Structure formats: C-alpha cells, structure tokens
Amino acid sequence: MAKLTAEELLFRKVEEKVKKAIYEYGLIADGDRILIGLSGGKDSLALVDLLGRRSKIYHPRFEVVVAHIVMTNIPYSSDMEYLKSCADEHGLPFIVHETSFDASTDTRKSPCFLCSWTRRKALFDIAKKHNCNKIALGHHQDDIIETLLMNMTHQGAFGTMPARLKMDKFEMEIIRPMCLVEEKELIRIAAWKGYRKQIKNCPYESGSSRSDMKEVLARLEAINPEARYSIWNSMSNIQHDYLPQKKK
Question: Is 39 a known ligand-binding residue?
C-alpha cells in the first residue's frame, strides 16, 4: 500500500474537521438537499470537493446542487467550463444564475453590501426553485474569528457568523461546514489540487477592516500559538458572572 503524501494526509485531516463540524453543530441531516454557492475562489471550490465527496458516504444521506452567480454589472472572467467540471467531478448539478444591482438605488449602503445582499437573495431564490432546504457557504474558521473581532472592535457586539443559522423568513438554513478548517489548510489544498482562480475586476473593491483583523489574528497567534483555539472556545464559554452587568 502506497504511503500517503503530506497533501493527501492534510486533505483527510480537513475532511475529518468537516465531519466533526457536521456532527457537533448538527449541520446536515438525512434527506437534506444542499445548495453550494460556487464563486470560484479557493474556499468555495474546496467546499464543492468536500461536500461532493461527503455526499457519497452512507450517513447522513444528502444531495448537493452547485450554483454560480454572475453579477452582470461587474466585470467577470469566470471559466464556466472549469467551474462546471468541478461539479461534474462529483456528479453534482451545476446552475449559472445572472443578476445585478444598482448602486445608486440606496446611497446609505455601500456597493459591497448591496452586491453581497443581492447574491445572498439570489442564492435563496435558487435554493427554493431547486427544492434545497439548506445553503452551504465556504466560510472557514479564520473568517468566523475575524468577523468576531470586527464586531467587537467596530460594533461593540460579541457575535459572528454561526456554523448553523435558521432563516425563518425564508424557511431555509445557512450552514458553514468548513467552520473548523483553517485558511492556511485551504491554501495548501488549493495549491495541491491546482484550483484555478477566477478573475474579478470589481470597481467597488477596496481595502476593508477584514485585512486588518487578519493581521490582528496573526499577531495574537505570534503571542500564543493556541490563540485561535482559545478565541473559538471563548464563544461557547461565556462567563456571565465575570462580565459587567448593567442594573435592570
């Protein structure tokens, strides 16, 4: 039996993390039909690979549909044949959906917010049309921790993107199966599998506080290599008695 390479061992480790997330956070159940939003970035490509493989395993039994959303008012150079081939590799249906937004309709909101909201709404519409009850997003552990740090720093709130979010208004659940996976692991997998990066020339794209939070997280890990795990565990270990309490 051939010895596994370092990359193969890493991929198996990531698969185990996804399996752990599915069971610990109750992300997937028998009979689920899950829509993956495939942007073409390393995270969504990895998610198609991971859930595509996972859907062939006996328990839980679920189906996967893959959708790529094209924002027609933003310059794109997506390789549709390549994206479709990534879905075809696992025998998954592939849908292309076109939509757009008008940044002048609501000057109170940034174009980035309007684009994100339009994409999210399109995912809900596609999921409903194709009888999906869950939408899987490619956020990893770094995304979730960085969002927590941003909310604490800018919003004065202790909250982030949950592993599982029930949307009562849309009768849909959003799940993040890669919530325990580190970004550096996905970067290595993308290089090993040769994921092709899709080109997006967004006129609205600019630096955000997320890049600042990446630096903050890196600095915390330099101080304590276990910092990310401490931050992650803090979200389920809130010691209310040792926090300032306003008088009722």
Answer: yes
| pLDDT tens per residue across span 116-147 | 888 889 999 999 999 999 999 999 999 999 99
208 annotated ligand binder: no
Contact in structure between 40 and 198 (CB atoms under 8 Å): yes
Spatial distance between the Cα atoms of 114 and 120, rounded to a whole number of angstroms: 10
Q: Annotated binding residue at 38? A: yes
Q: Is 207 annotated as a binding residue?
A: no
Fold for 6-207, please state it: Rossmann fold (3.40.50)
H/E stretch holding 134 reads strand 134-136
What percent of the chain shows pLDDT beyond 70?
Answer: 94
Residue 67 has pLDDT above 90, yes or no: yes
Chain centre to alpha carbon of residue 205 = 19
Q: Is the pTM of this model over 0.85?
A: yes
Query: Where along the chain do its domains lie?
Result: 6-207
